[in-house]
Design brief:
This protein is mostly helical and 380 residues long. It contains 16 helices and no strands. The chain has a domain of 265 residues.
Length: 380
């Protein structure tokens, strides 16, 4: 069993899980359901493969058939799409922080390293831009139409997951190269932080509905996407109950992501720098040290003095991400907090600044597709 799996089993998990549940509030029914589901996910999830027939709403392995789940609700799905579009920039920031925490998971980082598509700013730029393109097609597309870009994108991504899992199986001693737990942790990276910390991220509800309705739609959206990509309903962290979903997400944060960030794999520093430097073409203020500190502050894991030390003792500076960085990194960190938590926290300012940031990011995406060479100008 991989080291990460050892961290996520045993009595310690139950204690941390109970603690996370107690601090989340909600009905006893939701808390009990979340506690049992989280326990099952952490104990059984690492042993269940993510690929193959019957692992989700898709057809057999290698098939392009997509079967929508019986609980699919088109109205809720569209509401989740609108919630994302309304908060385009802040949702992107949340997903970027989620991807950064995902790099600290050994089993997932191993697969990324094997594919050799995320280890430098240029390759990371291409990979994550492609991931973003797929995700945007899901947020904008029609899953009810087999000829739609969203439908075809999901089939393509499922095929890539299968290929990555098979390659990892050949080069790894693990019998489960890509597990249900790995898939769910990836699911969290794309939606968990937006659900847990909307106010700290500057995410606002749309004018046509309440935050509760928007969050319900957003959760239903990712419940559907995860199902179609191979996550079993048994392990899917997006539940019909918004409260249950939040409790499970907080449990994963406490039991998995925060411990992994405290002791990440050796390649974490290099891959984290590649992610932030590669995405510099979309958000020019990105800085590895600042964004790592911002992400850990966002999730309530404030960095201590010992975190000033490099994550890697490698001689190559690209393998290191020091905790606080230099004056520039500190400035960028404070800027991120000021914009996300303070400026966007005021309703009046949010009404003007949020659309402006949305437009700026969409324009940056346009430039990134037209002039991809921009990413090679930022490699330090």
């Amino acid at each position: 069993m991989p080291p990460q799996e050892d961290k996520m089993s045993g009595p310690g998990v139950a204690r941390r899980e109970a603690g996370s549940v107690r601090t989340s509030g909600g009905s006893n029914k939701d808390l009990l359901a979340a506690s049992l589901r989280l326990k099952d996910l952490l104990e059984v999830g690492p042993r269940v493969p993510a690929t193959g027939a019957g692992s989700g709403g898709s057809g057999p392995q290698g098939s392009n058939t997509i079967e929508l789940p019986p609980w699919f609700d088109w109205d809720k799905f569209q509401r989740g799409q609108r919630y994302f579009q309304h908060n385009f920039f802040t949702m992107f920031a949340a997903k970027l922080s989620g991807l950064l925490t995902l790099l600290a998971i050994p089993s997932i980082l191993r697969v990324l390293c094997l594919t050799k598509q995320s280890g430098s700013p240029s390759t990371a730029f291409k990979r994550y831009l492609s991931t973003l393109d797929h995700m945007l097609s899901w947020y904008e597309g029609d899953l009810l139409e087999p000829t739609s870009k969203a439908y075809q994108s999901l089939a393509m991504v499922r095929g890539k997951h299968d290929a990555a899992a098979r390659k990892s199986l050949k080069m790894s001693s693990s019998n489960v190269p890509l597990s249900q737990l790995d898939m769910v942790l990836t699911q969290f990276a794309f939606m968990g932080l937006a659900i847990l910390y909307p106010h700290k991220l500057g995410i606002s509800s749309s004018s046509s509905s309440s935050r509760e309705a928007d969050e319900e739609g957003f959760i239903h959206f990712w419940r559907t996407i995860a199902y179609l990509l191979g996550v079993q309903d048994r392990f899917n962290i997006c539940r019909p109950s918004t409260r249950e979903t939040k409790v499970i997400c907080r449990g994963l944060l406490i039991n998995v992501f925060i411990p992994s960030l405290h002791s990440p794999p050796p390649a974490f520093g290099r891959m984290a720098r590649a992610l932030t430097n590669g995405m510099w073409a979309l958000v020019p203020v990105l800085d590895a040290h600042a964004f790592l500190r911002y992400t850990r502050t966002l999730i309530g894991d404030k960095m201590m003095e010992e975190d000033v030390k490099p994550y890697s003792t490698g001689k190559d500076v690209t393998d290191q991400v020091q905790g606080f960085g230099g004056p520039y990194s500190r400035f960028i960190f404070n800027l991120l907090v000021f914009v996300q938590e303070i400026l966007l926290g005021f309703r009046v300012i949010n009404a003007f600044l949020r659309p402006y940031l949305n437009i700026q990011l969409k324009f940056a995406l346009f430039l990134a597709h037209k002039f991809p060479f921009l990413t090679i100008t930022h490699t330090y």
